[in-house]
């Protein structure tokens, strides 16, 4: 019989996985909302409004949680925020403007394997053969979903430059994720999330205002405002809070599989927006992703949590 001390840890694991899964769902709608806003304004202004609404959503947490970081930790947070927010988001959405949603989603599908490898190589986590097989399986599932759709020939086609920019943004996000996880060993996920997003939002504001000028206000339709608000509140503030809280309690290499929810849901919404349909390969891909998630979340945790749990 397990002792009573084991139950809170087991419940925390499940809550951690649930938080990561919900974050993946929120991130999965980001391309959909972004597409609505991009029809009315440029990349820089779209990203700026996204983080404006994210900062509003995080304001209650900022008022409740005060940072107690030392000088070195502030430097790490600012460096991570610089790469994780202005660099990642501006590069990613600029790349998206040069390629198709299907190709961008396929690039995002490589994120779990990249994160699993990075967490194993640089964060001291361990992932056995079954874990690696699950991550690879889930990524193959994303590829089947993206490539299985009948995409409309109308619109801009894919480009190597756009695909590589999206992939470069994913590589940058690895640094952000692992640095946040390191900082959360000493500070709460809320503190790292709030002050990381606020710092990155200030950097984005400075860059966009200097490069593109003030964002449009008049003449922006209600649909674009609602999409911007949803993108900031759910796809940025809510998802980042949930993700940081989740990987604070579960290994990043295991949580990585839930990142595949983003391209799975994003590609589905993209196909719907383009008037296409999901074929049998897409359903097979969904089954592979679900199987990988179940495999990683139901196996024993004792083999790969070193350096993660305090």
List the helices and strands and how they pair.
Elements: H1 6-28, H2 30-38, H3 43-64, H4 71-98, H5 101-108, H6 111-122, H7 129-148, H8 160-183, H9 189-212, H10 222-249, H11 252-255, H12 261-273, H13 280-298
Q: Short summary of the structure?
A:
With about 300 residues, the chain is an all-alpha fold.
Describe this structure in words.
The relative contact order is 0.23. The chain has one domain. The chain is mainly α. The chain has helices spanning 6-28, 30-38, 43-64, 71-98, 101-108, 111-122, 129-148, 160-183, 189-212, 222-249, 252-255, 261-273, 280-298. The protein is built from 13 helices and no strands.
Number of helices: 13
Number of domains: 1
Which H/E pattern describes the elements?
HHHHHHHHHHHHH
Helix content: over 70%
The rounded distance between the terminal residues' Cα atoms is 24 Å
Instruction: Find the structural class using helix and strand composition.
Output: mainly alpha
Q: What integer value in Å does the Rg equal? A: 19 Å
Overall mean pLDDT stands at 78
Shape: globular
- Fraction in beta strands: under 5%
Name the poorly predicted regions: 1-8, 151-155, 301-310
């Amino acid at each position: 019989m397990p002792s009573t001390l084991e139950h809170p840890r087991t419940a925390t694991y499940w809550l951690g996985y649930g938080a990561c899964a919900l974050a993946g769902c929120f991130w999965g709608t980001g391309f959909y909302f972004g597409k609505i806003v991009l029809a009315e304004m440029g990349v820089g202004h779209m990203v700026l409004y996204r983080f404006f609404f994210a900062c509003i959503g995080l304001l209650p947490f900022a008022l409740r949680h005060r940072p107690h970081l030392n000088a070195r930790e502030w430097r790490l947070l600012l460096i991570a925020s610089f790469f994780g927010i202005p660099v990642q988001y501006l590069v990613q959405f600029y790349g998206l403007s040069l390629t198709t949603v299907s190709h961008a989603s396929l690039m995002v599908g490589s994120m779990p394997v990249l994160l699993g490898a990075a967490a194993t190589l640089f964060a001291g986590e361990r992932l056995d053969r079954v874990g690696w097989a699950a991550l690879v399986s889930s990524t193959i599932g994303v590829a089947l979903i993206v490539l299985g759709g009948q995409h409309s020939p109308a619109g801009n086609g894919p480009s190597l430059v756009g695909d590589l920019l999206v992939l470069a943004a994913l590589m940058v996000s690895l640094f952000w994720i692992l640095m946040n996880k390191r900082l959360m060993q000493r500070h709460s996920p809320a503190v790292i999330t709030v002050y990381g997003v606020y710092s990155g939002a200030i950097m984005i504001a400075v860059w966009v205002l200097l490069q593109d000028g003030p964002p449009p206000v008049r003449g922006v339709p209600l649909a674009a405002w609602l999409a911007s608000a949803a993108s900031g509140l759910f796809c940025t503030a809510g998802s980042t809070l949930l993700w940081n809280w989740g990987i604070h309690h579960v290994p990043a290499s295991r949580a990585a599989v839930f990142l595949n929810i983003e391209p799975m849901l994003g590609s589905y919404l993209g196909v719907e927006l383009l008037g296409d349909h999901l074929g049998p390969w897409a359903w097979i891909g969904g089954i592979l992703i679900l199987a990988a998630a179940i495999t990683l979340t139901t196996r024993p945790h004792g083999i790969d949590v070193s350096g993660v749990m305090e």
